Amino acid sequence: MPVSIALVRKLEEIEPRLREVLFAILEEIEQQREETVTKKEFNELKEIIRELVQAKNALNKSCKN
């Protein structure tokens, strides 16, 4: 996660122990964000499922004939 220069400057002004806690919080937020599925990824998954259902239905029709 990119950290702005302004944020780094503010963090330099606080005591080291508190700064470590804040960095730990930022790292946790970054990790959670990386593990989150985006709307685009979810829509791509929906499209793949739709295509799989269509292929299954077409296969079922061809097997019945």
Which helices and strands occur, and which strands form pairs?
Blueprint: H1 5-12, H2 16-34, H3 39-64
Tell me the strand percentage band. Answer: under 5%
Average pLDDT taken over every residue:
90
Distance between the termini: 56 Å
Order of helices and strands: HHH
Instruction: Enumerate the spans where pLDDT stays under 50 for 5 or more consecutive residues.
Output: none
Count of all domains:
2
The percent of residues in helical segments reads over 70%
Describe this structure as you would to a colleague.
- With 65 residues, the chain is mostly helical.
- It has two domains: 1-34; 37-65.
- It is built from three helices and no strands.
- It is rod-shaped, with a radius of gyration of 24 Å.
- The protein starts with a helix and ends with a helix.
- The model has no long low-confidence stretch (mean pLDDT 90).
Quick rundown:
The chain has 65 residues and is mainly α. Helix content is 82%, strand content 0%.
List keywords for this structure.
single chain, mainly alpha, 3 helices
